[in-house]
Amino acid sequence: MPRRNRNKSYTIFISHSTKDRWIARQMSRLIEEKVSKYYARTFLDERDIAGGESINDTIKENLRSCDEFLILLTKNSIDRPWVLIELGGAWFGNKVIVPIIDKITPEEMPDVIAQNKAIELNDFDNYLKELILRLRKHKGNRK
To answer: DSSP 3-state assignment of 11?
Structure first.
């Protein structure tokens, strides 16, 4: 089941290759530090799937319930089956999909998101600024 708190209404699902888990952890930490006052949180598989839980079911449920899908595209993740499956689920679920790219070109991005504006990992602060704007809008829509 997704980790939920009644006050936390905006979830960012972080998709990444296991080989990039350190980067994903740092992204999650930065997001949660910067947006905690907006009742936002991240879903990170290694942290949010407990021992004994079904990995498949937990990922599907969190994809269904997330508000935004952040995909870390690197040489390690660009062709990983799980990353592509999660991307397909987010695309099918009409989620906001934000590609964060590291050492790949926009032309190397999967076709389904080739038209999405990608953000370079080195410009992650820009993502955080954009996220705060979305969260302010989201918060305003809930009132």
So the answer is: strand
**Residues written for the chain:** 143
In the structure encoding, which two tokens stand for residue 139, read together? 């918060």
H or E stretch covering 119: strand 119-120
Cα separation, 23 vs 50, in Å, equals 21
pTM equals 0.89
- Amino acid 106: pLDDT: 82
Residue range 79-131, pLDDT digits in tens: 999 999 999 999 999 999 999 999 998 889 999 898 899 999 999 999 999 99
Q: How far is CA 71 from CA 27, 51, 117, in A?
A: 11, 24, 12
Nearest of 43, 41, 16 to residue 102 by alpha carbon: 16
